[in-house]
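Researcher: Let's try something more involved. This one mixes different molecule types, so please make sure each is placed in the same coordinate frame as the others.
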Amino acid sequence: MFSDIAQYFRTESLPHIWCPGCGNGTVTAALVRAIKNLQLEQNNVVIVSGIGCSSRMSGYLDFNTQHTTHGRALAFATGIKLAKPELDVFVVMGDGDCAAIGGNHLIHAARRNIDLTALVINNGIYGMTGGQSSPLTPHDRRATTMPFGNLERSFDLVELAKAAGATYGARATAYHNQLLTKLLIDAYNNHGFSLVEAVAQCPVSYGRRNQFQTPAAMVMWQKEHGIKVGQHSISGEDFYIGEIFRAEAAEFCAEYDRLRQRLQEDMPNG
Amino acid sequence: MTITPNQNTSIRINPDWCKRCGICLELCPKQVLGFNATGRVVALHPQQCIACKTCERICPDFAINVEVTEE
Amino acid sequence: MSEARLMQGNEACAAGAIAAGARFFAGYPITPSSEIAEFMAEQLPRLGGTFIQMEDEIASMAAVIGASLAGVKSLTATSGPGFSLKQENLGYAAATEVPCVIINVQRGGPSTGLPTSPAQGDVMQARWGTHGDHPIIVLSPATVQESYELVITAFNLAEEFRVPVILLLDEVVGHLRERVNLPATVQIVNRKKPEVPPERFSPYGDDHGMIPPMANFGAGYRHHVTGLVHDVNGMPTVNPALVTKFLLRLNHKLDPYLAKISLYEQILLEDAEVIVLAYGCTARAALEAVYLARSSGIKAGLFRPITLWPFPEAAFVPRQNIPIIVPEMNCGQLVGEVVKIAGRHNVYSLSRIDGELITPTQISAKISEVISRV
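Model: All components are placed in one shared frame. Result:
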């Protein structure tokens, strides 16, 4: 039993439903370690998740948790954060959930730079529904809806968030889970829209179809292909890990609150 | 606190949660963990454990707990 | 002492929502409801509230539910195309029992339809637009005054019964300007809060009867909210017995309270030899037609459902071979409910679908025609 973070779990709901070797559990523990490190008040933390394997995470965590509809977690979270800005709101999504059906809400949450910490667990596949391809499935890789290899190109999710206006972007993997915890802490401390992509393995829906013999082989693939930013140029399926961008911009809730104050002051009879 | 192999570390694996994915076995730098006769993950060589907690952090099932007890 | 003002229907909805305690609006521009958003954009920040124009109607509905979960009364407003986009999240609000108000200012449908023309074609969608069996309350004002009053009723019902409430207007009531008496005080209902300490709190517990108390996010009652079928602790379940228990409670939770929920108005029905059943903007012409008929010696009466769903069945008691005329600005939707109660041979649908209002003379002509047949 992982004693140091057990208090943050609804242990009565474990063991979880994720498949043997699935990276969701590792990423969950990394997130909880970040929350513990930040010493956030448990009653003040909100986890909003979408639909898909990774989005089942909210049910296992002992916070204010909401399991919403597919692709819409960021829009629900926007309402929660605006209505009660003092809440610490984390939004957990899968790659399909966030970048496919949820893409419109991703770019607008980033554009607004609303203070949300978005954790996108990228396993390059739709796991829950059995292995269809997603906007983050690597080119040529196989999926049930790309049986001859993925013809499409995939997003660079962190660059997409940056272009849309987010003020913090980073990436790590299940293998680099200590880095992931650190990046989540930095993401939370960035008062604005922060996106952290966690590359995680899906042995059953992705691994089996793409020549990965074991879950461990997929974790080792993360080790080999995750290249620290600035170390050297990347090619093929390599990807940068670490903090990728940071920017300064007004945070939406703070801006709106300034408006409320200003209008209150202008009121003639208060 | 320097961790030395003969440090007394307790490695507990929750059999109800462990789904035997084998990731911890591969990643343990000291080959401490392995499958026993019934295919359950156990600490085959606990004395080699250096309490780096790689296994505890990577375990997707939250099933491993490594504690270092002062001698 | 109440204050009287000349207000547009849409404006009255917004003002009523604020009077009801709403302090969060998320919406997206769409004719003919945009004035509601524009009014909220100006008024809410002045009152310490929040207005946000989201990227689409799906996001607007989601943000409204999020804000309500955080403890702030919240609403959105839209019209046909946006109402269609909101349906999935509206069903989520019904399943998670999150109070919220959705104003749908109907326009000609389907699809882009007649954006600036009135219609009543979303009546069935308001009830069954989202998938699966679910509770919902739909109110339909016929005047600007009533729009103001009913949005307050909508919030009170949403908070009391933890259900999404739809206010079904149409372009005419929405854009019409009429006198509104703004009451000095407004009776407000707030959601029931848990009375037990957190450790004994089960978010959908059954010892509260049909309507569980609601703990807002951050209030110390950490719990799980999910659109998956869930048990009394809010956790997902596929256990057939628990699924049945959840769905039966969800779909029957309003039953004990229908007298309070299913509102209606009856005019000159006692001795009526022909009944006109009309709602929303059409009820205005229907009332005029009833008076026209009376002046020409035909004893007509009006039954006006204010609550369309749940339909006021108990109050609408048809009498043996008294014909019922149901004028609607659609091809016949609520008339189906009337037929269920009064039988097919006794009910006459009167449709107008050209984007113009049904006129009193059209209805009184139908009255004369139907009376001559009896």
